Amino acid sequence: NAGVTQTPKFRILKIGQSMTLQCTQDMNHNYMYWYRQDPGMGLKLIYYSVGAGITDKGEVPNGYNVSRSTTEDFPLRLELAAPSQTSVYFCASSRRVSTNEKLFFGSGTQLSVL
Amino acid sequence: KNQVEQSPQSLIILEGKNCTLQCNYTVSPFSNLRWYKQDTGRGPVSLTIMTFSENTKSNGRYTATLDADTKQSSLHITASQLSDSASYICVVSAEGNTGFQKLVFGTGTRLLVSP
Fold first, then answer.
1. C-alpha distance from B31 to closest chain A C-alpha (Å)
2. Which residues, 6 or more positions from B35, have their beta carbon under 8 angstroms from its beta carbon?
3. Which of A90, B16, B51, B102 is most buried by its number of CB atoms within 10 A?
């Protein structure tokens, strides 16, 4: 199993550009998540999904959109990139949400908006 | 406000030595506490998950403790190796009223194991 795969690993955007961060998992997990990690801060939840066709906002959803058309894929869309969106983005998945369920993380996408 | 605080921020130890990382939390209602290891340029990897009733949990040379009364946890690393150099993140899960568990992440302790 490849686990959770994110692409690209690095990206530089100009202000106002748009892009999609790709995330796919091959563990047949129902739950998928997008987090951002800023320097010196804990990870913050952007969006999550409990299954295909179902998504919901996390703590910091403004400026982002998601979709979940399949169990495997959970892309994150930035429509109008802003410098405040410079961060490292992590996608994660879990089989379900229960007390002892592990989250499996991808290796991250480092995004700079200049 | 739900918060997770970790100490120290950073730590340097010699290879072969032991160390203990601390985590204090104010998260309610508490569901579980997790420790993750994050290598530079990689995503976090789960080390342990402990529920309210668990005081200690081990994973190889990593031993986590939980005191739910004082809302403190520690991660003890025994006989450190160079590969232990990483950030260690404490994460506390709060039970939501919809069943979804909200994870509150600490900022991590950056450990450097020196030869």
1. 7
2. B23, B46, B47, B48, B62, B64, B73, B75, B88, B89, B90, B91
3. A90
